[in-house]
Amino acid sequence: MDKSTIQPLEKPHTQTVMGQLTPVAMSIAEKAVRPSPGQPTKRTPEIIEEICARLEEGQALTMICNDPRMPGLRTVNTWKRNDPELQAKFNVAREEGAYVLDDIAELIARKVEGFATGDFRYDDLLVSVLARRKRYANRGRFGDKQQVEVSIQDPFVFEGWMLPGQVKQDVIDVKPDDTAE
C-alpha cells in the first residue's frame, strides 16, 4: 500500500479527544470537593446547627462543605458514619429542605423574576434537577410510588418430568369404579 494514498484524519480520534477531556473532568471534580488541609475540624454544636440550617434551606451538603468556614465533605461524612443520631438529624433537615426545593421549583416554573432565568430549556433543566433532589431528600412525600404485586401459583408438573435430584416415585392410576353407577 502506497503511503501517499493514506490521508490524515480531518478530526482527531475519539480516544484522543477523551484523553484531552480527562484533565478537564478531573479539575471540575477537584473544585466540587474542596480538599481539607491540616488537622481535622473539631465538631462543635454550632457547626452542626449551621449545617442543619443550611440543609433545611435546600442547600446541597457538597456546597455547604465548600464554604471555607465549614469542615470538608470527607470530615462531615465521617461524622455521619460514626454517629447515627447525627445522620438522622441531617436526614430530617434534608426532608425539610425538600419543601424549600419544591417551592423554588414552583417559582421557576411560574417564571417569577429572580428565580427563572428566562431560558425555557435551562429553567426546565433546573426544575427537573430540583425535582430529583427533593425526591432523594424526602422519599416519603415526593418519591415515586411503587406498587408491588405478588402472585402465587400452584406448580404444574408434566407427566414423566422430574427436577434434578428428584427421586422417581411410583404413580398409581386410579380408575373410577364402574360399579358405583
Structural notes for this entry:
- It is a single chain.
- With 181 residues, this protein is mainly alpha-helical.
- It has a single domain, classed as Arc Repressor Mutant, subunit A, CATH 1.10.10.
- Helices cover 52% and strands 0% of the residues.
- The chain has 7 helices and no strands.
- Helix 2 runs parallel beside helix 5, helix 4 packs across helix 5 and helix 5 packs antiparallel against helix 6.
- The longest helix is centred in the middle third of the chain and has 26 residues.
- The N and C termini lie far apart (95 Å).
- The model has no long low-confidence stretch (mean pLDDT 74).
Instruction: Give the strand tally.
Output: 0
What is the terminal-to-terminal distance?
A: 95 Å
- Average pLDDT level: 74
The structure class reads mainly alpha
Question: Level of helix content?
Answer: 40-55%
Radius of gyration: 31 Å
Which segments are poorly predicted (pLDDT under 50) over 5 or more consecutive residues?
Answer: none
How many independent structural domains? Answer: 1
Number of distinct helices? 7
Query: What CATH architecture label applies?
Result: Orthogonal Bundle
The CATH topology is Arc Repressor Mutant, subunit A
CATH class category: Mainly Alpha
The CATH superfamily turns out to be: Homeodomain-like
The portion of residues forming beta strands comes to under 5%
Morphology call = extended
